[in-house]
Amino acid sequence: MYKNTVLVVDDQPLINVMLKEVLSNSGFNTFVASNYIEAVEIAKTEQPDVAILDINLPDIDGIELLSKLKEINPDIKAIFISGSFDPQYAQKAADKGVLRYFIKPFDVFELANFLVKISSVDSASKGENKWQMIGKK
Amino acid sequence: MANDRQEMKTEIEKSNHYNKYFTKTSYTIKQDPPLFVKEGSHRVIIKYQDEADKTFEYDVGLSVIEDTEGHLGYLVSVEDTKKLEEKKIKKAELERWLTEKQIAASYVHELRNPLFSIRGFLQILKQSFVDDDKRKEYTDIALNELDRMNNLLSDYLSRYKEHNIINGRVNRCISVKNIIEELIVFFQHSMQLKGISYTLEFGNDELLVSIDKEQLTQVLINIIQNAIDAMSNGDNLTIKAFKEDNWVCVEITDEGVGIKQDDLDKIFVPFFSTKEKGTGLGLYITKQIMDSNGGSINIVSEEGKGTTVFLKFPEAKQNQ
Known about the structure:
The complex is a heterodimer of chains A (137) and B (320). With 137 residues, chain A is of the alpha/beta class. Chain A is built from 6 helices and 5 strands. Chain A has one domain (5-131): Response regulator (Rossmann fold), CATH 3.40.50.2300. Chain A has a 5-stranded parallel beta sheet with strand order 2-1-3-4-5, sandwiched between helices. The relative contact order of chain A is 0.16. Residues 124-137 of chain A have low confidence and may be disordered. With 320 residues, chain B is an alpha+beta fold. Chain B is 47% helix and 23% strand.
């Protein structure tokens, strides 16, 4: 059983291959897209829970893309990845609800662990982890 | 308006502007001036030589101003053309520098993409080796080297930040106290993990300095990070900030491993580092920033006991 469905959007094909490998191995149903059109297509067909977005795509920037994805699924969670850190942009991203902002080259397992953390919180809040909740009492 | 004109005239006399600049009776006018200035804005370049044959050139702007009752007045501006020329050169330099900075930033940004895919694949590869496999150690080395390369790129970019000061784009008046308090929050987690405590000691003085915020942040991050790296469980970090004459002083004291006397002499030399992943640029850049802001940095250290870094900034006046 997959923990969550994840959409990775980066225009670098090798980064997509690498992240798909890592995240699939961590149990996530992972889809990759290299541009806006592909991302929207996958968002519609696969309904991802989390989107990992490179903020500088050739046809759209991260915040705009996130807005488009939220039109499809208002509950989608987002993580930004980028080769540089712009504090103003990071602030805007945080205001849009972006959970983390990773600067390349980062530790891919840190990303995977973070996804595990947010997806388990998610399923617990949905009441899917009933046994655990009862056990705690 | 008539009153205004009167005031303007008095102001000019008080400032002695014309007496200072126009002492001769005849000047060469390089541009045809309007014969009668009754309306509009006009500009003439006036050139002359003084007794010592020194050439002066002024750009004089004249605008006719009029109020609703038809009273006329003049707005005159005089600017040294040499200074104008200098301003133009500075502007061109700034533009060139901004372009260079942009190119550098986009290069670094692009380089980080392949660095990231290499890093990720190395991490995947590393997972497939058992603990005592030499190849696992080799992938670790490759990962460390890759991170070092990335640090070098970051340091290279921060050189451009440091350059800010030369072009005079300075944030006036920032509180050292506020910046330290903001920064310490960032370090709290890593200090907790290492079992390090910290003490902040600020006097009641306003600790205002005149330095670019990013630069001050970089200086403090470099030093605090070094202090944390040097310390271990149970050690304490003390940051004191106070005013002394016209200086704002910051003392950062750690109870870490300290620095060898031999190394202490080389500490500000570029590419000198005792850390495994260090680039040797941190303290070099820190010193450059302190120097270019009229401040100073001094380090006192005893091996096995700890290190104190003394920072001194010229105090900023509130009205700057």
